[in-house]
Amino acid sequence: MHKDxxxxxxxxxxxxxxxxxxxAAEINNNLPEAENKIWxxxxxxxxxxxxxxxxxxxxxxxxxxxxxxQSFDEAALQKEGKFKAAEMRYTSAQQINKDDLKRWLExxxxxxxDYKNIVKRKGVLERLSEPGFS
Length: 134
What we know:
CATH class: Alpha Beta
Strand order of the largest sheet: 1-2-3-4-6-5
Helix content: 25-40%
Structural class: alpha+beta
CATH architecture: Alpha-Beta Complex
Mean pLDDT: 92
Distance between the termini: 23 Å
Oligomer: single chain
Largest sheet: 6 strands, antiparallel
Number of strands: 8
Shape: globular
Low-confidence stretches: none
Number of domains: 1
Radius of gyration: 14 Å
């Protein structure tokens, strides 16, 4: 794990730190090929430069965000923003269902919208058909 992500996690209060550490461990275990770093002040994991999953501390919870999550067909994930992102919010580490998280992370690997080139395409998202695109 990137040292800046560890520092981010360590800076949280006790319960939020547990949530962040658990999320980071599960993401790293299930997406070992993903690059991870602090991006826009939050921990984010990328495949081939495309952001796929990250989390952030909100006022009342920790938000787990999947950039392409609206395409996962998962009722538990809530729509976030105007593009294809979906989220889950946690106030306790016990709320994290590792089986759900593992399934979502696999879908994050397989189902991706091209956020890497969204600025170049003037806000238009295109679906990436193959995992491990270039």
